[in-house]
Amino acid sequence: MNPPSLFSPLKIGPYQLEHRVVMAPLTRMRASRPSLAPRPMNAEYYAQRATPGGLLIAEASPVVETGFGNPGVPGIYSEAQIAGWREVVDAVHAKGGLIFLQLWHVGRVSHSSFQPGGALPVAPSAVAIPSEFKCMTADGKVVDYETPRALETDEVALMVEAYRQGAKNALVAGFDGVEIHGANGYLIEQFLQSRSNLRTDRYGGSIENRVRFLMEVTQAVTEVWGASRVGVRLSPYGIANGSGEADPMPLYGHAITALDKLGLAYLHFIEPRASGTGRAEVDWQNVPSAMVLYRPMWSGVLITAGNFVGDTAQSAVAEGHADAIAFGRYFISNPDLPRRLQRGYPLTKYNRATFYAGEEKGYTDYPVHDELAQA
Ligand SMILES: Cc1cc2nc3c(=O)[nH]c(=O)nc-3n(C[C@H](O)[C@H](O)[C@H](O)COP(=O)(O)O)c2cc1C
Question: Which of the residues 110, 188, 218, 353 has the least number of beta carbons within 10 Å of its own beta carbon?
């Protein structure tokens, strides 16, 4: 049998993908304000990147008002947001594409200026992100991160319910599935890692306790969707937003083994060689490969992301390290990325200055490859 290729079909849960070029979740900060609902321009952007049987993972979307740390990010907790997302989903479906929504809470990666009533951000423990990392306030000032307020034990259960409600809202909006954002130093990863979790209740201390919040959120979300339409994103060895576990293997080995029992749609990594949040152009050498290390612990579909281009993506799939590759920055600047990779067309370079916020420029105005002009 031939090894799989980036362009061979793949079954993810109940869905049949026609190719394995996945659009990674990408925060673009272009939702309507003040509703924080997706708007027609957002639907156009996703539709441009949809292909028959291609999977898009829509940008991280807070499940509750305390979950924001950036302006202009779309939410998934209000009627207007559900209606806005439905327009996005319909536009993607009209092109035969599939779309999952990434469910988000930033935890301590926020500032009181984003919080209801100007309260402190919430987190597992009252531990601030170190001052070498800077925080942008809602009115654009660069400041140190505040020390968050630790969630009470009964508030953790309410947070699990917020994810459940976000999952329900995504179902109402018509998505094909959801991805739980457990990466990049945000709330779930703050629970996972010992540097941000000093709790002494059942959510802190031992690895099993630190993994509990991830498992409870995943359990709640799978109760809404069924496990086969739920993915989880993790970034073992990542260092985004002040994260990082001294010895990731026992922690992530435990988490991945526990998740593997659930029969999820997929596990989705960010490779440590890349910037987890895509905020820097780095390609760290001599770092572990998440897909290589953890693949033996995962029996389902594995997606990974981080500095892939056509040939490296193809070999990762052909060698069996991953089943599909998610592309971030090159999917921003190449709306027809699957076709370009399949035909070996050159890629348009992205413009970092237009990643976050703004209008059409750097968002819906990237061209598709014009075969005639190149001939
Ligand atoms: C502008 C931008 C926004 C991003 N937003 C998210 C996000 O909302 N959720 C997430 O899990 N990762 C996010 N990432 C990380 C990407 O999903 C991806 O893992 C990373 O960019 C590495 O892939 P690449 O090398 O193909 O760009 C973002 C990256 C960029 C560049």
Answer: 353
Chain segment 229-281, per-residue pLDDT in tens: 999 999 999 889 999 999 999 999 999 999 999 999 999 999 988 877 777 88
Average pLDDT, the chain: 96
162 C-alpha vs ligand 1 centroid, how far in Å?
Answer: 24
Catalytic (active-site) positions:
186
Tell me, using a 6 A CB cutoff, whether residue 274 lines ligand 1: yes
Tell the residue nearest (CA) to atom 31 of ligand 1.
278
Give me ligand 1 centre to Cα 200, in Å: 33
Give the CATH number for residue 101: 3.20.20.70
Judge if the beta carbon of residue 60 lies within 6 A of ligand 1.
yes
Q: What is the pLDDT of residue 285?
A: 81
Query: In which residue ranges of the chain is pLDDT below 50?
Result: none
| pLDDT attached to residue 277 | 77
User: Among candidates 250, 366, 267, 260, which has minimal Cα distance to 322?
Assistant: 267
Q: How buried is 118 (Cβ within 10 angstroms: 0-12 exposed, 13-18 middle, 19+ buried)?
A: exposed
> What domain range is 171 assigned to?
10-374
CB 36 within 8 A of CB 81: yes
Domain membership flag for residue 3: no
Query: CA–CA separation, 8 vs 22, rounded Å?
Result: 13
**How far, in Å, is the centroid of ligand 1 from the Cα of 105?**
16
Helix (H) or strand (E) holding 371: helix 371-374
Is 5 part of a structural domain of the chain? no
Residues 6+ apart with CB under 8 A from 158: none
Residue-level pLDDT at 374: 62
* Total number of domains in the chain: 1
Give a yes or no: residue 216 inside a domain: yes
In a domain, 1, yes or no: no
